[in-house]
């Protein structure tokens, strides 16, 4: 298995431009998470999906951010318009519900991240 | 490429006892950071502890401490006097200093039993 795949790995853009980050989860996984990592704030959960449905988007910073999961093998995180403070590493992770219970997921597998720089 | 391995998918401990979560990593860099993150049911990631690789002294934060064995590339987390609120997923992570490349382990689910 190739693991969680994210693209692009690096993105440099100018303020005001639209940015789209992509994620392909591990096949068979029914949870998908988007995180943002900065040195100042650490790792923040932005949104997560279960069976392609957004479950909790309370971590999405503002309306400029949107995420979609049109099918089980693909998700996007879009920033429009982008701002310099959006510069960060964005991680996607996927997981599969295990046998332990229904209140949170089993092990998560993280992608390599997309490093975004907004000038 | 960096890799981080957590070999214990789940663990349990009795309240007030001590538990150790294992983590091994691999990196070709000399300068890197190591982290333990906690993810409770709220799903928000909480930084538990951080270790700079150049520091020989093990990091400690209240009831949380690490055993950093650089030669063995091992970075275990010890939780003393476990509390019910410690129940969560715990992720080990490494970050190479020069390129800020960060990698995560798959997590260990810890359950603290009353």
Note down, in words, how this protein is organized.
The complex is a heterodimer of chains A (119) and B (114). Chain A has no helices and eleven strands. Chain A is an all-beta fold and 119 residues long. Mean pLDDT of chain A is 88; it is low at 100-105. Helix content of chain B is 0%, strand content 54%. The A-B interface holds A 33, 35, 37, 42-45, 48, 56, 59, 89, 91, 93, 100, 103-110, 112-113, 115 and B 6, 9-10, 37, 39, 41, 43-45, 47, 89, 91, 100-104, 106-107, 109.
Question: Percent helix among the residues of chain A?
Answer: under 10%
Radius of gyration of chain A: 14 Å
The chain-level structural class of chain B is: mainly beta
In total, the number of strands of chain B is 12
Outline the low-pLDDT stretches of chain A.
100-105
Question: What is the succession of H and E elements of chain A?
Answer: EEEEEEEEEEE
Average pLDDT level of chain B: 90
Please report the distance between the alpha carbons of the first and last residues of chain A. Answer: 36 Å
Query: How big is the Rg of chain B?
Result: 14 Å
The main β sheet of chain A shows up as: 7 strands, mixed
- Based on Cα principal axes, name the global outline of chain A: globular
Largest interface: A-B, 25 and 20 residues
Note poorly predicted spans of chain B. none
Report the sheet with the most strands of chain B, covering strand number, pairing sense and barrel closure.
6 strands, mixed
Helix content of chain B: under 10%
* Broad structural category of chain A: mainly beta
Straight-line N-to-C gap of chain B? 41 Å
Number of strands of chain A: 11
What is the oligomeric state here?
A: heterodimer
């Amino acid at each position: 298995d190739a693991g969680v795949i994210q693209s692009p790995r690096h993105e440099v853009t100018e303020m005001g431009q639209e940015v789209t980050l992509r994620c392909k989860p591990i096949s068979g996984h029914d949870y998908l998470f988007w995180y943002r990592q900065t040195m100042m704030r650490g790792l923040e959960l932005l949104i997560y999906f279960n069976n392609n449905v957004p479950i909790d988007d309370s971590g999405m910073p503002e309306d400029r951010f949107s995420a979609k999961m049109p099918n089980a093998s693909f998700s996007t995180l879009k920033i429009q318009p982008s701002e310099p403070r959006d510069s960060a590493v964005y991680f996607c992770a996927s997981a599969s519900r295990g046998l332990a219970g229904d209140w949170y997921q089993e092990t998560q597998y993280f992608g390599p991240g997309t490093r975004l720089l907004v000038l | 490429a960096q890799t981080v391995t957590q070999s214990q998918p789940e663990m349990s401990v009795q309240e007030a006892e001590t538990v150790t979560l294992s983590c091994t990593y691999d990196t070709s860099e000399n300068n890197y950071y190591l982290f333990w993150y906690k993810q409770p049911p709220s799903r928000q990631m909480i930084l538990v502890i951080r270790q700079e690789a150049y520091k020989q002294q093990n990091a400690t934060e209240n009831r949380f401490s690490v055993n950093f064995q650089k030669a063995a590339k091992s970075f275990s987390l010890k939780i003393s006097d476990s509390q019910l609120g410690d129940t969560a997923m715990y992720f080990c992570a490494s970050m190479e200093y020069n390129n800020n490349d960060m990698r995560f382990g798959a997590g260990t689910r810890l359950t603290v039993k009353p």
